[in-house]
Amino acid sequence: MKGHACVILLMCLSCVCATALQEKSAKDELLLEYLRQYMTELKRGDEPKAVPAQRGTEELTRDYPPPKQMDLQTLQERDADDESLVKYKEALLGSTADVLDEGGQNVLLKALVFAPVDHEETVLDLTGDLSQFKRNPFVVKEGAKYRIKLIFRVQREGVSGLRYFEAVYRKGIRVDKANFMVGSYRPKTEEHIFQSPVDELPAGLLGRGDYIVKSKFTDDDKNIYLEWEWSFSVKRDWE
Question: How far is CA 84 from CA 71, 90, 186, in A?
């Protein structure tokens, strides 16, 4: 009987050990996946490719925390006694003295461009009076294919997870909503340009009419760099 009891005890211990190992393996796999996603975020370069819009939601979710934000000058001043590292960082990050600072917010959204595939672009200058864009809709052809372009600058410190949101309304009713992951950028004097994938305007009798768009430009830290409204009118042809 004692021998049988020992065998049963050993079998139970084996099961417990096997379960523990499986749980540890699962946790290790989750940790590796976290690290892979985290490194992917860090390696994301400037000027990302256009990605499909996410419809019907304003919040993009992530399964890991974004990298801690650090300004360009702090990055350059770290490990100042390591000559080789200093030279590497200068080549990679540039110098804060070389980056134009126009004042205001760290990220400056200069313009939104409505860019039809087969027609001239409409540029909304976002550095002046924004109220004019809601009052004065521009005309677009029904069913036309187009992109949205964003022209902006990052001035003083790198920014993580820039995003563009828009909600489209007709006669006070929201008819569409989308967001775009614009990406992470380092400071530089030159302007960055992001463009969305190709989309298509509504068409037909029900699609023609006036639309108002509520737009917002923000980042992972919930900083809102600009909010504004603009409008367009869908007609049979360009006017």
Answer: 21, 10, 21
- Give CA separation, 89 vs 61, 71, 158, in Å: 31, 13, 14
| Interstrand relation of 224-235 and 138-141 (parallel, antiparallel or unpaired) | parallel
Q: What is the pLDDT of residues 8-63, one digit of tens each?
A: 444 554 554 445 445 545 544 554 454 455 444 434 445 455 555 565 555 544 54
Question: Is there a contact between 154 and 33 (Cβ–Cβ < 8 Å)?
Answer: no
Of 40, 60, 102, 45, the residue nearest 222 (C-alpha): 60
* pTM score, whole prediction: 0.67
Contacts of 231 (CB under 8 A, 6+ apart): 133, 134, 135, 136, 137, 138, 210, 211, 212, 213
Q: Read off the DSSP letter of residue 71.
A: B
Are 157 and 205 contacting, i.e. CB atoms less than 8 angstroms apart?
no
pLDDT tens, residue by residue, 105-120: 999 999 999 999 999 9
